[in-house]
Amino acid sequence: MSALPYAARATGLVGSVIDSSTSLLHKQTHDIVRFAMGSPAAEAVPADILSAIAGEQLSRPDAYDYAATEGDPPLHAALLEMLRGTSDETTADRLTVTAGGMQGLDLFCKIFVDPGDLVVVESPTYTNGSATALSYGAELLEVPVDDDGMIVDNLPKLLDGRRPKAIYTIPTFQNPSGATLSLARRNQLLELARTWGSMVIDDDPYGLLRFAGDPLPTLRELGAGDPLVFSVRTFSKIVAPGLRVGWVDADPELQQVLINAKQAMDTCTNLPAQRLLAGFLTGGHLEDHLVRQRAEYRRRKEAMHAALTEHFGDIARWTDPEGGFFLWVTLENGINTEELFEMALPEGVAFIPGPAFSPTGRFSNAFRLCFASTAPDRIWEGVTRLRRAADKLAPN
Ligand code: PMP
């Protein structure tokens, strides 16, 4: 027992197994194929373009000042332009620049979640999102996901008469399953939220990374400005996560509340990073960049499928995402994937075990693989190592 005078909420701070894997992997000195973090490929980060923009934009002292809390005007304007004509088209009074998607989730919970409030999450769900809700004292209800995303039909029964304060969904190429919420379910979810007066947290960082299938309208578009829809977006997956820049698109009534909450948190989002992104967008680099990334991520997903078919075809099944970074593997031979992680790390491969994606520790037979960060030949090597580790746990 510590003698420190903690606030009650400190005991609810659960952190993230995913983020902790970054530190864990940094400490390893041997060669590891990294399927753990959801980072873009190092080669996909447009470092040369960003450093040319830095040469122009970041040589002036004003680039190091405080920024406007709602976002530096050049980025705010460039974002509106970027979204024009897309499913996320919006207006200036709805847009607040944030320190990545995570801050969007944190701001949402700070503004809407009281201790004891019920928040619906997908099962499996994005660990950091559920951790954020838990850190504000939310009670979580897990709703299973299938190939069409959250099984919205199950919601009323699982709620058993209770009304959730919020429903948290990652509708497109879900983290961790790779599943996409179907159009019918998107509409059904919005309808239920309206019936219950529940907020919908529309966390959609991967939507622009579709490499197969037909695009679906975002919840932002389907919601058509409904104040119940709170959309969280980020540049982390489409440009670079270390910039820590994202945005929230929410009802105009919320903008001042978001500004107040953000001013009591970090004053403003990192200005040099905002200037870099504004230069990237106004320089017209995003579209070409996305075209290249989508093609490469498709190649990598196919490489991972081929490697899984070869090495895990007899003991597992896996999802087939049409975009994004992740696929979800379910083992059918009784291996516990947290034990597999311990065995796999010395073997030279890392992934995130399934229970990290469930507040109640479900999915001990499953794990998440990020195919986006690793080149195809290394994907093959990583999956080969993973099978070696699996065989050490349960020799066939
Ligand atoms: N939501 C989801 C579903 C994510 O996958 C991530 C990143 N892994 C985030 C939010 C957080 O994004 P950021 O790095 O911009 O904070």
Descriptive notes:
It is a single chain. This protein has 396 residues and is an alpha/beta fold. Strand 4 and strand 5 form a beta hairpin. The longest helix is centred in the last third of the chain and has 27 residues. Helix 4 runs parallel beside helix 5. The chain contains 13 helices and 14 strands. The model has no long low-confidence stretch (mean pLDDT 96). The structure holds 4'-deoxy-4'-aminopyridoxal-5'-phosphate.
Give the second-level CATH assignment, the architecture of the largest domain.
3-Layer(aba) Sandwich
What spatial order of strands do you see in the largest sheet? 2-9-8-7-6-3-4-5
Total beta-strand segments: 14
Number of domains: 2
- What is the SS-derived class? alpha/beta
Heterogens: 4'-deoxy-4'-aminopyridoxal-5'-phosphate
Principal-axis shape equals globular
Spatial gap, N to C terminus: 46 Å
Within CATH, the superfamily of the largest domain carries the name Type I PLP-dependent aspartate aminotransferase-like (Major domain)
Keywords:
396 residues, alpha/beta, Aspartate Aminotransferase, domain 1, Aspartate Aminotransferase, domain 2, 2 domains, eight-stranded mixed sheet, four-stranded antiparallel sheet, 13 helices, 40% helix, globular, binds 4'-deoxy-4'-aminopyridoxal-5'-phosphate
